[in-house]
Each structure stands twice: as structure tokens, then as C-alpha cells.
Amino acid sequence: MRSTSADLHTLTGAYAVNALSDAERSAFETHLARCESCAAEVAELSATAARLGAAVEFAPPAHLKARVLAAAAETRQLSPRTARVPRARGFGRAGALLAAACLVAVAFVAVQVVQSDQQDQLAQLSSQYGRFSDLLSTPDAKIFSATGANGATGTAVMSPSRNEMLFLGKDLPVPAGDRVLQLWMVNGEGPHSAGVLSSPTAPLVANGVPGAQKVALTVEPKGGSKTPTGELVVEIGLA
Fold it and tell me: What is the pLDDT of residue 239?
């Protein structure tokens, strides 16, 4: 399927949440390398996705579905046809829809956390979000992703100037009680431990490995290993 540049501008939201087909991803990444506005939009949406990935899951209240359906019934789905205006920097149609959904979800999770008397956890998450947003807004930050043989997906946001990397996982396996998911950054000297994930959905920021060529996630004994010994979950090239 042939895509125009205008079509590709609308894929930022789907790309940020790994919802593109292989063909669409390849075309979009080619476009992304030369489109500053899309690169900025992807970074912003990835930051929001990271926040949602770290959020605590709560069962929605019974009245939420009725409220959402009622609001949808009163909301215009298609705007009137008017003269075309320039696309605003930072949000395409798909990006705007995703951002709106993310804001609703974050607000709902925050309310649930407060109602559950978990203010300390909310404060901790807020602190983490600030660090992620700062890294993602770095001018030289680049996004890399890969999918493992078992369907697990890993995304790495790398900033060479800060020598920092943010790792985000999706559909990662839940290790047994005596095992953990350990992240590795690999350069010319070999693998270096970047830390252990606190949970399969928790993001992790690592630094101190100059010239990293790839990121790998493995299953290791509880407490972590000095070198990789267990099953490879996903490996991401940083080039």
C-alpha cells in the first residue's frame, strides 16, 4: 500500500504504541528520520505511553461505562468541511486522539490512586514521569524497538548526549518467583547490567555505558547476574 507524506504524518500515535504493521512501521521510520515535527510528536506521545505503562491498574467504577457512552452520543464525530488549515506542530489527527485518550486515562488512574489512599505511590510515579519527560525531550533522543520470538516488545529511547536510555516493555513474560527480568546494554566491551525491572510493566532508565550498540532483556536468577545467563526475551539494536 502506497502512503503519501500527509498520510504518514497521521501515524505518530499508532507508532508510539507499537500498533503499526511491519510495512507501515518501515515507511514511517523512513519518514521519521527527516521529519522533525513527527519526531517531536512521537517523543511526546511515547512519554505519555510510558506514564500509562507504569500506572497501577484499578477496576473502573460501574457508572463509568454509562458516562462514556452518554458523552460519546453528544460529541460530534466528524467536523464540518472547511478550508484546510496548516497542521499544528506536535499533534496529527491520530496523535490528538491518542493524547486525549491518554489524558482521560491518566486522570482516572490518579483519582483512583487518591481514593485508595495511595498518595505516596502517586508521588513516586510523578517523580518518575518528570525524569522520563526530560529525557524524551532531549534533542538527540532516538527511539528503537524490537519484538522477541515470544511476542514480547521492547522500546528503547536513547540520548547519546546524556548517555541515558529509557527502556519500556510490552507483553513481557512474568518470571517465576526465583527469577527476574534483567536489562543489559551491550557495547564493544560486551554486556553491562543496566538493572533489574521491578515488574514486567515498569520502565527503567539506565546510563553509564558509552557506545552502546544494543539493549537486551534476559531472565536471570533473583538478584540479577554479572553476565547474561538466562533466556533472551528481546534484543533491540541501537542503530
Answer: 79
